[in-house]
Design goal:
- It is a single chain.
- With 71 residues, this protein is an alpha+beta fold.
- It has one domain: 2,3-Dihydroxybiphenyl 1,2-Dioxygenase, domain 1.
- The chain has one helix spanning 18-28; strands at 12-15, 32-36, 46-51, 54-60.
- It has a four-stranded mixed beta sheet, with helices on one face.
- The longest helix has 11 residues, at 18-28.
- It is globular.
- 11% of the residues are buried.
Amino acid sequence: MPTLSIQSMTPLLYIFDMPTSIKSYCDVLGFQIVITDGKPAPDFEWALLRLGGADLMLNTAYDADQRQRRD
């Protein structure tokens, strides 16, 4: 049987509030935004974050019209 060699892994987390999540991961924990879906910050729906050698993807759990408002 062949041996599986995993060099890295990037978890994808489904989140409910991208602006709050970005603030927590970047401002509090020190992650940096590597790339996003191109929408204006911090309202993008997908982002790849990096801290040292660790990558993390964030994706909104619902489409924009199905999310609760942050008012």
